[in-house]
Write a structure and sequence with these properties.
By secondary structure, this protein is α+β, with helices and mostly antiparallel strands. It contains ten helices and 21 strands. The chain folds into three domains: 109 residues, 2-Layer Sandwich (Beta-Lactamase); 186 residues, 2-Layer Sandwich (Alpha-Beta Plaits), CATH 3.30.70; 81 residues, Thrombin, subunit H (Beta Barrel). Helices cover 28% and strands 39% of the residues. The strands form three sheets. Strands 6, 7, 8, 9, 10, 11, 12, 13 and 14 form a nine-stranded mixed sheet that branches. A six-stranded antiparallel barrel has the order 15-17-18-21-20-19.
């Protein structure tokens, strides 16, 4: 069988390989097995038994036993499979079994068994700490463990919870993590359904790329469909929240497409798979314009869509570092997938209460105080009509103080009588 290889070399390989190696007669009797095979199966040295007799008669070993019996009974020239193997101590191993039948110089089977258990455990853990696509990229490609990147056309999705920073100050760490974990679990399930890759969790935000490391020709369509379904999944998220004593959550999503640099970033000792470029910054900027329940997509993404995009409004914004405004659209659905929260007209109730307010720069309150008045609010108290002693820009974030409450809000639009605002969170004052 190995007549062209020196006997000493054969013996060395046979005895020192981590793989379990067996030579089995045409009737299934073990003729030889190396130390790894003896350890795996607990086979006494030189004991002549059939190979399937060395396998514990335990539930879970049927496939492995049948694999050997079928090969011998049917005189198969080759056989390969991945099967489970349960040892006497109850531990489960994932085995890759390869069987080759030789007629010369000895009629026998050469069986090589690789225990994949540790590899599968590492791969599973790695995928949980990154994402399945990044794990595959790192573990199965030649570029996966090298520093460097390439330019690739992708679609970026950025999501963030509205008012979560203020909410986090009112909850214990344990409850906060429980709330976030359930939310992330639901969102990642949708993201994986549409072949998105989670680059990282940014506090309560999610940074997702469609089209890398797995290439997608329809990355824009996948991203928009994913965003609509993510928003619709918030219904079940909040049902769970209410059932477990948590507050309702609202999420905003911004989507942009373009050429970015993707690949491994860092040092030889520590690297991460990253995605960089102005399209990423633009997606983040657009997400910052959203109110809870909204999905905004740029003109860049809309142009790439194969599907039929439905939207309720459009606008323009100036991305940081750009000289030109970029058009965006507020999505209501795509290809029959509809945002469930779009309920139409707002019922207004008259109000008449003066208040003070402050501008927000990023998430920092600007100290200068201004004066305004809420003269209408919606029946669900999510929206209000607001007048101010100073002009307000669309998407401006403000902090309104009245009746011992501090209400964070975002300016949605300007009407003839004032500004329409949406409250993003409420905290009790001192």
């Amino acid at each position: 069988m190995f007549e062209n290889i020196p006997a000493e070399q054969i013996k060395y390989i046979f005895e020192n390989t981590d793989d379990a190696v067996c030579v089995v007669s045409s009737t299934g009797v073990l003729l030889e097995c190396n130390p790894s095979a003896e350890k795996l199966f607990g086979i006494p040295a030189k004991k002549e038994i059939k190979i399937w007799e060395a396998i514990p008669f335990i539930e879970g070993n049927d496939d492995l036993v049948q694999l050997f019996i079928d090969a011998v009974a049917q005189k198969l020239t080759s056989q390969e499979a991945v099967v489970d193997y349960v040892k006497d101590d109850g531990s489960v191993h994932n085995l890759h079994v390869r069987m080759t039948f030789f007629r010369e110089p000895l009629t026998a089977y050469l069986i090589v068994i690789t225990d994949l258990t540790r590899l599968i455990q590492v791969r599973s853990a790695f995928a949980r700490y990154t994402s399945p696509d990044i794990a595959d990229y790192v573990l199965t490609t030649s570029e996966g463990q090298k520093r460097g990147g390439q330019t690739q056309g992708v679609t970026i999705l950025m999501s963030d919870l509205r008012g979560f920073t203020a909410l986090a100050t009112t909850m214990s760490a344990q409850r906060l993590i429980s709330l976030l974990n359930h939310y992330f679990e639901q969102m990642v399930s949708v993201i994986e359904k549409y072949h998105g890759t989670v680059i990282e969790f940014l506090g309560d935000g999610i940074f997702v790329v469609f089209g890398a490391p797995r290439e997608l020709t329809d990355h824009a369509d996948c991203a928009v469909r994913c965003a609509v379904e993510m928003q619709n999944a918030m219904t079940s998220v909040n049902e769970w929240n209410r059932g477990n004593g948590y507050p309702d959550l609202e999420m905003g999503i911004g989507i942009n497409s373009g050429n970015v640099v993707v690949g491994n970033i860092g040092s030889e000792k520590k690297m991460k798979y990253g995605c960089m470029g102005s399209p990423v910054n633009t997606a983040g900027r657009l997400e910052g314009l959203t109110i809870g329940g909204q999905v905004l997509v740029t003109e860049n993404t809309r142009r790439l869509l194969n599907g039929n995009l439905n939207y309720v409004s459009e606008g323009k914004f100036l991305p940081k570092g750009s000289a030109d405004e970029l058009k965006y659209y507020e999505v209501s659905g795509i290809d029959g997938i509809t945002l469930v929260h779009n309920s139409g007209e707002i019922t207004w109730i008259d109000d008449n209460e003066e208040c003070t307010f402050f501008f927000l720069k990023e998430k920092t309150v600007v100290e200068k105080e201004h004066y305004g008045k809420i003269f209408k609010h919606s029946a669900d108290k999510r929206y209000a009509m607001f007048s101010a002693d100073i002009g307000l820009d669309d998407h401006q974030n403000i902090l309104i103080c009245r009746n011992g409450e501090r209400k964070y809000a975002k300016v949605i639009s300007r009407d003839k009588d004032g500004f329409r605002i949406c409250f993003t969170s409420v905290t009790q004052g001192s």
